[in-house]
Design a protein that fits this description.
Blueprint lengths: L7 E14 L2 E14 L3 E5 L6 H8 L7 E6 L8 E2 L5 H11 E4 L11 H6 L6 H14 L15 H12 L6 E5 L7 H16 L3 E5 L3 H6 L2 E6 L2 E4 L8 H6 L8
Parallel strand pairs: 3-8, 3-9, 6-7, 7-8
Antiparallel strand pairs: 1-2, 1-4, 4-5, 9-10
Helix pairs in contact: 4-5
Length: 253
Amino acid sequence: MSESAVSVLLRAEGVSKSYTLRGRRVDVLRDADLAVEGGMVTALVGHSGSGKTTLLHILGLLTPPDRGRVVFDGADGGGPVDTTGMSDRELADLRRGRLGFVFQSYNLLPQHSALRNVALPFPGRRAEGEQRARDLLARVGLADRADHLPSELSGGEQQRVALARALINDPPVILADEPTGNLDTDSEELLLGLFHELAGEGRAVVLVTHNPAVSAAADRVHLLERGAFAPVGRTETATETETETGTGTRSSK
Ligand SMILES: Nc1ncnc2c1ncn2[C@@H]1O[C@H](COP(=O)(O)OP(=O)(O)OP(=O)(O)O)[C@@H](O)[C@H]1O
Ligand SMILES: [Mg+2]
């Protein structure tokens, strides 16, 4: 990863998403724009139900938007890559090569050990994948839990296994949904340190969070309200809306 100037790695442009359930339409995202920069930890905040997970899944190429587009920038030194209209196969290739995704509910495979869960997305030799997985488990403080099944791990440990899995293919963009939701202060600090380390390697790290300590430590904070984003300046004091959302977010660098 390059440590050169800040560059946008991934963009959502004019993204809209609605769900219709039992005849009632819910407009979750309305023309939302977001540019995700390499070298930065970006926090996405907003009240519960504001659409953070929906947006993250759209950025992660797991859900297509109804309108708008998701674009990877400057990939492999080439021009922008518009993901609109790509086949499932193309999307899966992009996801595997460029994205690490940490799900809000972890999505670990229950029949596999922590080590196998982390190594599974690695496309190369099994032994190499497992060696990388061991290193990553050590990086998230779980060197001694490699052989545990997910059911034999605490919630916070499962969360850290999910992060290690997201890193197995060395992705330039990491998208994590509430990655510190189940952690004590020590593990939270370890992960925050790791996220900044990953950003320091030039990666874009995007964290959805309700945790004021996480957003306060982020380089960028974007508040999702009424279906779209507004950047939150580091020097601004908390607005009425932010206080209402309970994020307590005051700042971004
Ligand atoms: N598959 C679906 N069908 C219908 N409505 C949905 C669906 N998925 C999400 N929604 C609705 O979209 C809205 C946004 O959901 P989303 O999960 O993106 O919120 P969130 O900001 O991540 O909330 P939280 O902080 O609680 O995780 C919610 O009101 C939810 O009820
Ligand atoms: Mg969510």
